[in-house]
Structure formats: structure tokens, C-alpha cells
Amino acid sequence: MEGEFTGKEVYRQHFDPKEFLKLHVPFGSGSLAVRERGYAFILEKLHKAFLLDGIQGETLIDIGSGPSIHQLLSACESFQEIIATDFLEQNREEMQKWLKKDPEAFDWTLMVKYVCQLEGDREKWMEKEEKLRKTIKQVLKCDVTQTNPLDPLVLQPVSCVLSTYCLESACEDLPTYRSALKNVGSLVQAGGHLIFVVALRGTYYMVGQHKFSCIYLEPKMVEEAVKEAGFGIVCFETLDMNFTQDLADVQGVGFLVAQKHNEA
Ligand SMILES: C[S@@+](CC[C@H](N)C(=O)[O-])C[C@H]1O[C@@H](n2cnc3c(N)ncnc32)[C@H](O)[C@@H]1O
């Protein structure tokens, strides 16, 4: 891997939620441009999974939400309750700002409108924002390197766990990634779903001036780790991407849906 592993202390000190959002997330009220097609890909796949393929249930846990809410815009139509989580206090605070309509909160309008358009009515974006705010019931601390990522809380396994671009950033190497996947997978009940958005074939991403490591993953490595954690792959679609050096060296994004085997 190029550069050093950026562990928890580096995240605590240098991961600035506002810088992350400014650099990586398209915002405003225009339309999603070509360079943002990675986001369009993710939002379309999540729309399909939750609204067309019918993945639904009582509770969804989003692992490593960061300061972001876009990944939950379709899920709030299919789950009664969403639990957002992140390792960093500053990210949890940034999300709370959006939930409380703080004037300094990030402007997610563009993403919200895009998802509303997928659902058939771009004009319903304010209702959608309200619905998501009501559905996110908790914002909890999590650490994917712990056997129970939500420790000290112990929750009943839930019907769906979602995670976007988290484990590959949180883990130092492939063995740690595989074990983190088992930790996160343990939060899913038998027959429930795991949905992952994965950065493929990359070694870093930028947040402001700071470079954060991620582990180099080929789709096959992700599939093997998911199977080893007790899941069957339902679908795994990939999109080739090329970022500029000031953003990341990631070469693709993977969208994976897996289902936990029923215990014998
Ligand atoms: C690239 S960001 C992705 C954020 C968000 N999911 C998104 O798609 O915009 C990676 C996230 O992983 C979180 N993270 C880093 N180490 C972690 C750990 N050990 N456990 C849980 N989350 C962690 C960071 O705080 C950060 O929010």
C-alpha cells in the first residue's frame, strides 16, 4: 500500500467532516454531473434494492455513516427505524446538525432531489427530508474493529445492515477487513441483508490536505470475506471510476447485496 495506515488517532485528529463533504459530495440544487456518476450509481442501486427488490423490515443499521445521509434516502421508505453510526464524534455531530436543521448543516438538496426523481416525483424532496429525519432514531458510536461494533450497547440483530466506504478505510490489512466484516455481519439476523458500497482498487482518499489510507480490494476479495462471514451473495455490481489525485486513487465502486444464511 502507498503511504501509511491512518488509524483511529489520525481520524480523530484530522478527519474534518466539512472538508470531507466539500471535497467528495456533490451539493446544491443543480443536476448530478458526469463526474458525480459514482454517487448516481450508488443512489440508483440503493433505490433498486429498497424499493424495487423489496428489501425492507423494522430496523436498518448504517455502519460508518460519517457525516453523510444520502445513503439512507431510499432506506427510509422501507424501514421503520434507522440507526446511524460512526466512530468519530465530529461526524456524529455533523449528522445531528442536519437532523436538527441547524443553519450550518450541509446542503443535501441535490442528492435528495435526485432520489425523489428516481421515486417518481422530484418535487417531494422536502417531505423526503422530513421522513428521513423522523426515521433516523439514533446516532451511535461504532467501531468495526470490535467484536460488537456497538459496544457497550448490545442490540438484537436487525434485518438489514448497510455500510458505504467504511471498512476499507477503517482496516489496516485484509485479515483485519475480513474480521471487521464478521463483526459487522454479526449485527444482521439470520435471513437478513448486508448491503455494502465498496471502494475498489484504491489505496487512499483525501480529506482536505490529509491523506487517509484504504486497503486495496479486488471484487473477489470482498466476495470471499462476505461469504466467510456467513452470507450468500445476492448481487455484486461494479462501476469503473477514475478520480483525480486530489480526491482518491480508487478505480472503481462496488455495490454488493448479501443475505445471511439461516442457522442450521
Ligand atoms: C470514507 S468515510 C465514509 C462515510 C460515509 N459512509 C459515506 O459514504 O459518505 C469513512 C468513514 O469510516 C469511519 N471510520 C473510520 N474508522 C472506523 C472504525 N474503526 N469504525 C467505524 N467507522 C470508522 C470514519 O469516521 C468515516 O466516517
Could you give a quick summary of the protein structure above?
The protein is built from 9 helices and 9 strands.
Structure overview:
- The protein is of the alpha/beta class.
- The chain has one domain (8-260): 3-Layer(aba) Sandwich (Rossmann fold).
- The protein has 9 helices and 9 strands.
- It has helices at residues 8-14, 17-24, 37-52, 89-99, 109-118, 125-135, 167-170, 174-185, 219-228, and strands at residues 57-63, 79-86, 136-141, 158-164, 188-200, 204-207, 210-213, 231-240, 252-260.
- The strands form 2 sheets. It has a 7-stranded mixed beta sheet with strand order 3-2-1-4-5-9-8, sandwiched between helices. The protein has a two-stranded antiparallel sheet with strand order 6-7.
- Helix 8 crosses helix 9.
- The structure holds S-adenosylmethionine.
- Residues 8, 11, 15, 64-66, 68, 71, 86-88, 91, 142-145, 164-166, 169-170 line the site of S-adenosylmethionine (SAM).
